[in-house]
Design brief:
single chain, 127 residues, mainly alpha, 5 helices
Amino acid sequence: MQRMTALISAALLSAGLMSATAHAQQDPAAAPEQPQAAAPTMDVSDEQLQQFADASEDIVVISEEYTERLHAAEDEAAQQEVQMEANDKMVEAVEESGLDVDTFNTIGQAVQQDPELMQRVQEMVES
């Protein structure tokens, strides 16, 4: 369950990465100021960051597809089944990118806390 929550959080982060650039281009003043947390710096290679960006793009697609299916589910058991299937697909997407789930989540946290790292991921997603 904790793994699913982390992946879903990553999917939401990824969705934010995908739309942040477009939003910032429309109205740069609309970006909210966020306090800088003292985060440990993570040495992320360009290859790992590209793997993260690739997996994030796949996770956004999976998240959108399964969100629709989740809303269409008739009861809690059906919703749980959809969530488990979505989680499996997200794990598969991460592993196919060449990362393990823990590394993906660690990079995701680093990206959230490091604006420079986030910029690098956004550039990779756009290219």
